[in-house]
Amino acid sequence: MKTLIKATVATFLLATAAQAHDYTKEGIAVGHPMAFETAKNANVGGGYMTIANTSDNADKLLEIRADDIPRVELHLSQTDENGVARMIKQEGVDIPAGETVMFQPGGLHVMFMELGGDPFELGEKIKATLVFEKAGEIAVEFNVEERSSNGHGEMDHGKMDHSNMKKSD
Ligand SMILES: [Cu+2]
Fold it and tell me: 10 by DSSP, 3-state: which?
């Protein structure tokens, strides 16, 4: 019975996934913020979206806050010459005038941390506030989507070694 319910939810989400949600404020457009469902014991989850700057002025994403999540960081995934993937904490992300910055698996991403026993579940919405230097605060919701619905080949953050993390500054 449980399986049947889950399948129904998944079908519903697939049907609605095409309806991208976005948030616009003062020349900044945040497109389809989403996160993948996580394993039950996962301590971290990645968040993805696009941020378009349609204004004539450069802006900067300073930080992301989420009431229900102890720690949220901006990360950049990089693979070094030995094929070792690591994540580098960003103190902010520049959003140049007229450009779109992609937060996607294997690159820039939002790192929701210290989930401690409260995994991201399919259909859940993670409330968060993006703080920009010029556009100010934009409240968004990250839709939690099925991992398999994505074609990018998401890295499993749960298995990544965060001890490799170094600061960008
Ligand atoms: Cu990360």
Answer: helix
Q: Distance between CA atoms of 82 and 84, rounded to whole angstroms?
A: 5
Q: How many A from CA of 76 to the centre of ligand 1?
A: 7
Domains of the chain listed by start with CATH number: 2-151 (2.60.40.1890)
Q: In the prediction, which pLDDT does 10 show?
A: 54
What letter does residue 68 receive in the DSSP assignment? T
CB under 5 Å of ion ligand 1: residues: 75, 87, 111
User: What is the CA(85)–ligand 1 centre distance, in A?
Assistant: 10
- Rounded to the nearest angstrom, the distance between the alpha carbon of 168 and the centre of ligand 1 is 13
- CA-based angle 144:5:141, to the nearest 5? 20
Helices and strands, number each (H, E), in the chain:
1, 12
What's the gap in Å between 62 CA and the centre of ligand 1? 16
- Express each pLDDT in 81-138 by its tens digit: 999 989 999 999 999 999 999 999 999 999 999 998 899 999 999 999 999 999 999 9
- At a CB cut-off of 8 Å and minimum separation 6, what does 1 contact? none
Residue with tokens 């930080």: 63
SS3 48: strand
